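Whiteboard transcription, Tuesday session. T.W. wrote the C-alpha cells on the left side:
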C-alpha cells in the first residue's frame, strides 16, 4: 500500500494541475474557444492525460464546475449546517439564532466573492447564467439552489404572513446584494473610491448588508 502512495499523489497533482489550467482557460476564453492542447500546455502535461482523467473536453468542463462547487461548499458548508439546525427548531426563541445564521452565510459568501480566488469562478458562472449548459445544473444543484431554498425558508419562518413566492423573490434579492461585490466589482470599487476590498471595506459592507436584510425582514411585504 505504501509503495502506491507516491504514484497516487502524483496522479492527484496532475489532475489538479489540469483542473487549474482548465478553469483559467474556460473562464477567459470560453468553452468553444479553448482547446485541449492549450489546457495541456498550460498545465505542463501530456494532452492524452485529459482523456485519461476526464474523458473529453466536456468531462473536463464539468469537472471544473464540480471542483468550484466543492470549494464553495468547504467554505460555506459548516455555516449552512448551523442554519439548517436552526430551521429544524420550532421555538420562537430561536428567531435571533436563525437571523444570525443567515447573516453568517451572507458574510461567508461576501468574503468568498470579494477574494481573488473567486474571480475565475465568477466568470465561469456568469457565462453559464447567460448561456446555460449541463454545467449550470452542477452549480445550481451543488450550492446555489440550496442556499436560495434555505434563505426562503428563513424568510417564511421570520415573516409568517409572507407568501411563498414573495419569500423566494426576497431570497433572490438578498443573494443579489452579495453577488454585486463580485460581478460588479470594478464599478463598486470605482463608485466607493476604494482601491481594494480590505478589512475595513468588508466590515462596512457586512454591516450595511445586515441592516438592509433586517429592514426587508421587518417590513410588510406584498401588501398594497
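and on the right, the sequence the group agreed on:
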Amino acid at each position: 500500500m505504501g509503495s502506491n502512495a507516491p504514484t497516487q499523489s502524483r496522479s492527484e497533482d496532475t489532475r489538479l494541475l489540469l483542473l487549474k489550467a482548465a478553469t483559467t482557460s474556460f473562464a477567459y476564453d470560453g468553452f468553444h474557444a479553448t482547446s485541449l492542447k492549450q489546457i495541456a500546455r498550460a498545465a505542463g502535461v501530456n494532452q492524452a492525460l485529459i482523456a485519461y482523467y476526464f474523458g473529453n473536453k466536456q468531462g473536463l468542463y464539468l469537472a471544473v464546475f464540480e471542483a468550484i462547487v466543492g470549494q464553495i461548499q468547504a467554505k460555506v458548508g459548516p455555516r449552512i449546517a448551523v442554519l439548517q439546525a436552526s430551521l429544524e427548531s420550532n421555538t420562537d426563541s430561536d428567531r435571533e439564532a436563525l437571523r444570525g445564521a443567515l447573516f453568517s452565510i451572507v458574510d461567508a459568501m461576501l468574503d468568498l466573492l470579494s477574494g481573488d480566488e473567486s474571480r475565475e469562478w465568477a466568470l465561469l458562472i456568469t457565462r453559464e447564467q447567460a448561456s446555460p449548459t449541463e454545467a449550470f445544473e452542477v452549480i445550481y444543484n451543488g450550492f446555489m439552489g440550496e442556499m436560495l431554498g434555505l434563505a426562503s425558508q428563513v424568510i417564511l419562518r421570520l415573516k409568517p404572513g409572507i407568501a411563498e413566492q414573495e419569500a423566494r423573490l426576497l431570497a433572490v434579492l438578498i443573494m443579489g446584494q452579495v453577488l454585486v461585490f463580485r460581478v460588479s466589482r470594478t464599478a463598486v470599487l470605482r463608485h466607493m473610491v476604494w482601491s481594494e476590498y480590505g478589512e475595513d471595506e468588508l466590515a462596512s459592507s457586512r454591516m450595511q448588508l445586515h441592516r438592509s436584510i433586517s429592514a426587508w425582514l421587518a417590513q410588510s411585504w406584498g401588501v398594497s
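Someone added at the bottom: Residues 75 and 188 are 24 Å apart (CA to CA).
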